[in-house]
Amino acid sequence: xxxxxxxxxxxxxxxxxxxxxxxxxxxxxxxxxxxxxxxxxxxxxxxxxxxxxxxxxxxxxxxxxxxxxxxxxxxxxxxxxxxxxxxxxxxxxxxxxxxxxxxxxxxxxxxxxxxxxxxxxxxxxxxxxxxxxxxxxxxxxxxxxxxxxxxxxxxxxxxxxxxxx
Length: 165
Known about the structure:
The protein is mainly α and 165 residues long. The chain has one domain (3-159). The protein has helices spanning 3-18, 21-33, 38-43, 59-72, 76-80, 87-106, 111-119, 128-136, 139-164. The radius of gyration is 16 Å and the shape is globular.
């Protein structure tokens, strides 16, 4: 199976089964590219649905930036050495590419705006009734899994593009 399809399928599956868009996209990339890191995975927990379910920056995007940073970012040693290889600059470049894909596809990187685009309205996911309506509208049937799957696919494409250079 090619890596972009694998990333999409894993992202879709994880979001459908386990929820937590930020962790789901991150794990899809970790599994696809053998980048497992439990601490990084755990650190994505609070980013879901626009940070703490508040509808801010999309969790699939923030988890995706974490995945790209795990692959391309500077480590602590480079950080303390002043980043002589410019690793943070490469991570910034990859993050911008992913950000742009979200803007191009959804017209925004904000979870509430993406919800409006795919559901026709946004939801307050911290309100039990609104969360129930969110789920009844297909949130974890195909809507959010689709966003996570596409994000994982885009990240895989970004990584593979780089590998081809």
